Amino acid sequence: MNNKKDYRLGIDIGSTTIKAVLLDGEDAILYSRYRRHRSDILGEMALLFEEMAEDLPETNARIAMTGSAGLGAATALKLPFTQEVVAGTRAVRRFVPDADVVIELGGEDAKITFMKPVVSQRMNGTCAGGTGAFIDQMAALLRTDASGLNELAKGYTSLYSIASRCGVFAKTDMQPLLNEGAGHADLAASVLQAVVNQTIAGLACGQPVTGKVVFLGGPLTYMSELRAAFERTLKDAGCDFVTPQHAEVFVALGAALEASGDVMPVGELRERLRDAGAIDADIPRMEPLFGSEDELKAFRERHARVKALRGEIPSGPCFLGVDAGSTTIKAVLTGRDGQILYTYYSKNEGAPLPRAADALREIYALLPENSYIGGVTVTGYGEQLLKTALRADRGEIETVCHTRAAQAFAPDVDFILDIGGQDMKCLRIKEGMLDSVLLNEACSSGCGSFIQTFAEALGLTVQEFAERALSAKNPVDLGTRCTVFMNSRVKQAQKEGATVGDISCGLSYSVVRNALFKVIKLQSPEQMGKVILVQGGTFHNDAILRCFEKVAGCDVLRPDIAGLMGAYGAALIASDGYAAGARSGVVTADRLSEIQPETVTQQACGGCTNACKLTVSVFSGGRRLVSGFRCEKGEGRETDSALPNLMEEKYTLLFGGRSPTPPDQAPNGVIGIPRALNMYENYPLWHTFFTELGFSVMLSRGSDHTLFEEGMSTIPSESVCYPAKLVHGHIRDLLNRGAKAVFYPCVTYERKENEAANNHFNCPIVQSYPEVIDANMDILKKTGAVFLKPFLSLAHRDKMAKTLTKTLAAWNLPLGKVRRALDAGFAEMDSFRASMARRGEET
User: Is the pLDDT of residue 215 over 90?
Assistant: First the structure.
């Protein structure tokens, strides 16, 4: 037993927080701290050590450091370092010895540790989706913080499917839902459910989460609804959930338990940090944006010359353009000659309608008695919502509006690059016409939200952040990775002594290089043409503008209304289509309070098995807006009955007319077939084959997200395709319904479509996935079901018959009977394909 004076101190420096725990000789916690460092690790360490020197003036202890950012600090301070997984496992073994599974979520780290039969640990790699940083990003979209998100989630009624693998993907799901009026409580709960899905499907990698489950880390300690989401998802696994005392500092606690070596005064940490100096730099540096103040002045003067015409509100018609973007809402009022009469720019804060009402309210207050709005055009993410709510005259797609605005400044423009909050558009113009469009797809690392995320993490406005970049002497080269991925590289740069300006400038370079080399895939500046115009709110950032010119190697035009170009183009389009004397039908000043929908409800579309989550907004006068659909069925529009629905016909031909033999009339019993991967297309073959042999065929139900969730705890690979991940749910569905035998073969070759075909080799996933199912779904063994997974080639029918006879040996089926059943199955497949081909020709 250690003496009570044998103090041990553990310090955990994570990606977003610093934790410290002091233990006595009997492992009792005497002192603990948990604080966010907001990327200023050295500064926050200094404050912590100063505080500890004052709180523990006479305390000597053995000290160990841990955490994702702890190694460099431990080296600089000449202290022992212990790996965080080792520290966490040590603490769990000491204080929760009967734990079976440990789920730990940190700022950018997510871990699952299986404690039995031997310790097996799974950790996120380069992606911070599903961690505390992910939660913070999603909370910011809802204009709250993590604790506010937790409170919101308590009032949810339904869940949306939100991507969780990366914050960028999730924003893509969240922003349209916000703009369409989805409830914040539902979105908050959906974010937490996404974290759970990512943890279980992405980290568990097929190993079931059962037994005593221990929750660790700040998010799981402080967010009751996140714990509730885990418990809800794992309710059928028979888990016992525990959140131990001090769960938020458990890794620091483990580091204290691991502490060994010499005893030193705790107060000495303060002096060691002062003496450590800057850590040797490993991240490469780039050249500064400007060589002198004169160069910066010339840059600003050149761009200040590209100004829009402005004027006073005249008598007669004015024209309004409104751009509801991903993060902001913009409005521009123009006259007949295109002069700007009024502008409005505001963050939409997830509620674009109140901001649009504010803009209209200001416009009506400014309009003289003999002036009126002659036309209104809306564009952007929230186009349909604003068009319905405001009774706008027209909606127009963003690319057309941006092109119209650009040509008002430069009629001979060749190339337009627009960078907004989350989207990026590259427009090539040829002979005055829009020739091609390139858009960013799943990644927003070259967009405004990318810079905003880092500025807010440092407690700065975007303008302050950009200003520091302009004077940076040694910008850091941060690459062109995603927002969430790059966090750790920024942390590394800070640890190496990079200033905020160096980091801001490095991020600006990253934005531009991502735009030019990832989205545009630029090979030379000549590809952009002679007249290049940049726009979008992101280009108000002079650092990004300068980086663009340096990387592209040319001067560009940036209008002084770069962030308003979508709205300006929309106003010009409203003016272009004006008929003399006409007045807009836009909502009047006395009715602005009524533009919010009277009711907003969520419902599942029953048009097809996608079951899209619809948001139905009903406005005064009975106007309805349905959003969230992927086809006209969800919108409520009637489809053209004269056009055949070939997909529906195919589905009916595959499954609709194939009734199974009743189980009590099937001499060989029930056999299950998953409606997944190659078994889906080949179902006519296998249904007929087994029916001919005297089986009753049980088909798994249709795919949906619920089916995915039922099987996700057994998925061993995060990166395998979604159709393969669905197989787990299909197998579980069959077993839950009582199937005692499941047939799912490994099919290496399909039949050749025709003699001219040179390849009929199946996808490797299709070939081997039955083996994956057998190795990872313990429910097969628990239920005692027979899992039949022979290797087959549909191109060699004779070999198939022999292999299937061996596979079905338990049923004593002669080879001849198997051959005849197989012939019948292939004949049915031929009939199905002939029917589909015939319908295609008829259509």
Answer: yes
Taking the alpha carbons of 92, 269, 49, 5 in that order, is the dihedral positive or negative?
Answer: positive
pLDDT at 682: 94
Structural contact between residues 178 and 170, judged by C-beta atoms closer than 8 angstroms: no
- Give the C-alpha separation, 514 to 551, whole Å: 11
Q: Which helix (H) or strand (E) holds 418?
A: strand 415-419
Q: Is 89 helix (H, G, I), strand (E, B) or coil?
A: helix
**Is 281 or 215 the better-scoring residue by pLDDT?**
215
Residue ranges of alpha helices (H) inside 60-166 are 70-77, 84-95, 132-141, 146-153
Q: Per DSSP, what are the bridge partners of residue 427?
A: 416, 437
Going by DSSP bridges, is the β-strand pair 8-13/17-23 parallel, antiparallel, or unpaired?
antiparallel
Tokens of 592: 């602005």
For residue 408, pLDDT over 60 is answered with yes
Which residues is 123 bridged to in the sheet? Answer: 111
Assess contact for 776 and 770: CB atoms under 8 A.
Answer: no
State residue 5's pLDDT score.
67
Q: What would the two tokens of residue 731 be?
A: 């197998």
Q: What DSSP line would sit under 376-415, residue for residue?
A: EEEEETTHHHHHHHHT-SEE--HHHHHHHHHHHH-TT--E
Q: Quick one: tokens of 811?
A: 């049923």
Angle (nearest 5°) at CA 271 between 268 and 273: 110
Report pLDDT digits (tens) over 440-479: 654 555 566 667 777 876 778 888 888 899 988 889 887 7
Position 255, amino acid: A
Residue 109 is given by DSSP the state -
Separation of alpha carbons 296 and 291, rounded Å: 8
Contact criterion met (CB below 8 Å) for 698 and 737:
yes
Alpha helices in 423-523 (DSSP H): 448-457, 462-470, 483-495, 500-513
pLDDT in tens, 546-604: 998 998 888 999 999 998 999 999 999 999 989 888 999 999 998 888 888 877 777 77
* pLDDT for the residue 1: 33
Half-sphere exposure of 378 (CA within 13 A, CB side): 22
Q: Is 491 exposed, middle or buried (0-12, 13-18, 19+ CB in 10 A)?
A: buried
Closest CA to 329 of 403, 265, 269, 389: 389
Distance CA 91, CA 94 (A): 5
Q: Which of 318-332, 396-410, 431-445 has the lowest mean pLDDT?
A: 431-445
Helix/strand number for the chain, H first, E second: 31, 28
Quote the percentage of the chain above a pLDDT of 90: 47
What span, in angstroms and rounded, lies between the C-alpha atoms of 491 and 152?
Answer: 31
Q: Measured between alpha carbons, how far is 62 from 64 in angstroms, rounded to an integer?
A: 7
Give residues with Cβ within 8 angstroms of 126, minimum separation 6.
Answer: 485
pTM: 0.60
Residues in the chain, overall count: 843
Does 3 have pLDDT greater than 60? no
φ/ψ of residue 280, rounded to 5: -55, 135
> Does 97 sit behind a cis peptide bond, omega within 30 degrees of 0 on the bond before it?
no
